[in-house]
Amino acid sequence: MPKFCLISELMERGCISQCTDKIELLNSVKNKTLSIYCGFDITADSLHIGHILPLICLKRFQIVGHKPIVLLGQATSLIGDPSFKLEERILNTEESILIWKEKISKQISLFLDFNCDKNNAKIVNNKDWFNNMNILTFLRKVGKHFSVNQMMNKESVKRRIVSENQGISFTEFSYSLLQAYDFSELNRKYSVTVQIGGSDQWGNIVSGVLLTRKLFNRKVFGLTLPLLTQSNGIKFGKTETGTLWLDPEKTTPYKFYQFWINRSDIDSINFLKYFTFLSVNEIHSRWKVNMENNDDYWSAKVILAEHMTRLIHGNQGLLAAKRISSCLFSGSIENMLLTDFEQLKQDGIPYVELSGHEDLVQSLINSTLATSRTQAYNMINSNAVYVNNKMINNTKYYFKNDDKIFGKYSLLRRGKKNYYLLCW
Fold first, then answer.
1. In a designed cystine with 83, which of 156, 298, 419, 424 is the match (CB 3.0 to 4.6 A)?
2. Which residues sit opposite 401 in a β-bridge?
3. Measured between alpha carbons, how far is residue 419 from residues 242, 368, 388 in Å?
4. Is 51 one of the annotated active-site residues of the chain?
């Protein structure tokens, strides 16, 4: 029976935003073996980095003996959670959701153990209980326990109601009741007593706590994790150029690695607490030594980037990301593989498709590294242009077959950091 106080550690790591009845929850987690769940709606064919923290949190519970349950909301995915969304979600088809569910299930296996003895992780589907429930049963069984006044006072709902351009449909308004019933049904079927989720789920989670008490007279708990946001306030699942996905076909290991390596030192320390199993004391002590010695051997952002990339993409994905990074920033590209260039083309650096007998000046214009032939001439004459990291100062230079790595790629660079991939 678990004795380690995980709630205290989560608090020390800054991983708890809110929880219901903190003292009783702390004692329950410490002295009992619990079933704990987190729900994910299937809104795309991949999870993104905003989903990592709750999955890591479930893993922490599993390590100390609790049973993690992941709810994939095939039913609720047909509705869409309105929590703090500015506009109505696009309704996806059942066929798409079913395909996406299989892909996401495989990604979840990166985090949780489904083959341990006593506390195997389990994936469940809320369509199992909603599929055979008609609207009258739902209204009588669930709807009667909720006040419309209270539902309208939820911050996420109020924002949509007062919006001049976008209200909220009854479909999305009812979402909170569906999630609440998920919690009560998981309590009935699997003895789940704790739900975790992002802080934007607090209202939905509390609704589930209350409904379970009203239906079964049982006490359950809710715990929310901080939403990870960037300096511009955008949720951590998004970046300036779009969502950072866990699927390598949507976000390459190289781009994934670069995202983490470019975090600030302070953010990297916080993320090490969130995402790794290094102790808080070890993180702070090693960081202190690093700062005192001005030594990059243990750089927080390097440790973070390596840990996160290995977790999602394995050792091969990490090696590829590090190889590409090293080759680009050291100026030596001899060790790059064909697959490395394919990653760069997918989302690593800008690229342009070229055909025929291209000259260097025109390629600078086509790649937008230069806005005119005059500017391109000036760049070349000032020794600022490189092809495959070799400086070219000939304004009449034409690309040769030797410039085409693997017969199809050339790296065009202006200055130290402005890369463009030429694809032949």
1. 156
2. none
3. 20, 11, 10
4. yes
Q: What is the CATH number of the domain that holds 23?
A: 3.40.50.620
Identified catalytic residue from 22, 235, 286, 345: 235
Tell me the C-alpha distance between 392 and 376, whole Å: 12
Highest mean pLDDT among 55-64, 144-153, 230-239, 350-359: 55-64
Higher confidence at residue 357 or residue 135?
Answer: 135
Q: Has residue 237 got a pLDDT over 60? A: no
Residues 64 and 187 both lie in one domain: yes
Domain assignment present for residue 245? The answer is no
Catalytic, 85? Answer yes
Question: Is 32 one of the catalytic residues?
Answer: no
Which entry of 18, 21, 30, 43 is annotated as an active-site residue? 43
Which of 13, 20, 41, 51 is labelled catalytic? Answer: 51
Instruction: Quick: pLDDT tens for 290-347.
Output: 666 665 555 888 999 999 999 999 999 999 999 999 988 877 888 899 999 999 999 9
Annotated catalytic residue: which of 89, 284, 345, 404? 89
Question: What is the CATH classification number for the domain harbouring 382?
Answer: 3.10.290.10
